[in-house]
């Protein structure tokens, strides 16, 4: 596992609802036409997934569909982007 590195200019960090210094980073790597989703704990990367840019719309659609089908009355928290 690698130590923390600064995010590329285009990326976001989302904090895990469980706390414990867990986070999900999403970073765009234009030079490779990839989006990298990585899992972090205590500023150490514990896993990553490289998604081709042309597959990102499918991921977004899946997330939007999940929100549409969430139970009535549930709330959505927004994390600050980095």
What would you note in describing this structure?
- The chain is of the alpha+beta class.
- It has one domain (11-68).
- The chain has one helix at residues 56-68, and strands at 11-15, 22-29, 34-41, 44-52.
- Through-space gap between termini: 22 Å
Radius of gyration: 14 Å
Provide the β-strand percentage band.
35-45%
Number of helices: 1
Structure summarized in a few sentences:
It is built from one helix and four strands. The protein has one helix at 56-68, and strands at residues 11-15, 22-29, 34-41, 44-52. The longest helix has 13 residues, at 56-68.
List keywords for this structure.
82 residues; alpha+beta; 4 strands
Write the layout of secondary structure elements.
Elements: E1 11-15, E2 22-29, E3 34-41, E4 44-52, H1 56-68
Antiparallel strand pairs: 1-2, 2-3, 3-4
